Description:
The protein is α/β, with parallel strands linked by helices. The protein has helices at residues 38-41, 50-60, 80-88, 103-111, 129-133, 140-150, 169-178, 208-218, and strands at residues 4-11, 20-25, 66-70, 93-98, 117-121, 155-162, 184-189, 224-227. Strands 1-2-3-4-5-6-7-8 form an eight-stranded mixed β-sheet, covered by helices on one side. Strand 6 (155-162), helix 7 (169-178) and strand 7 (184-189) form a beta-alpha-beta unit. The radius of gyration is 17 Å and the shape is globular. The protein starts with a strand and ends with a strand.
Amino acid sequence: xxxxxxxxxxxxxxxxxxxxxxxxxxxxxxxxxxxxxxxxxxxxxxxxxxxxxxxxxxxxxxxxxxxxxxxxxxxxxxxxxxxxxxxxxxxxxxxxxxxxxxxxxxxxxxxxxxxxxxxxxxxxxxxxxxxxxxxxxxxxxxxxxxxxxxxxxxxxxxxxxxxxxxxxxxxxxxxxxxxxxxxxxxxxxxxxxxxxxxxxxxxxxxxxxxxxxxxxxxxxxxxxxxxx
Length: 228
């Protein structure tokens, strides 16, 4: 069973060029200071029953193009493939948001044609991951997931949230080398309205000219750089 915290019934921004329903899974293996979904990192009751969520999808399937499964970190849930199979039977497309720490699950979902679009967060250069995520883990898992996604043959994007306290110009260049040859990278402006670490609600964001500069310096590595 996939543990679900919430459902957004309609979104025009979470799945590129599609109207989607967004499913928020509970729990995450990262503790990123600036996380804008803190209620999903250490989730508390109540949760939504999987069968009720599936009934909600069934009732809305004529009004949406696809389902976005996000979190938290969806790949923590071992029953995720079975859950997606039930949605696929309804004829809907699936976009998965992930932090890339479970390449084995990603490969399974891709091999079984259960996902149509993957958005993977690339938090930082690999050597900076522990500082941003507040966890220690094998960063080779991130490299494996990047290569699996790049060679998957399905639509995808990588995403990096950047803010002055954590990401500098040299880090952007290192991310470029890490993702070299990728199709899409979205550079996301940090928003401080709601964060896991309350201190980050006072942290500034990069201004538009700086974001444009970062886009220019990483563009030689990435086919399409988007600023959000």
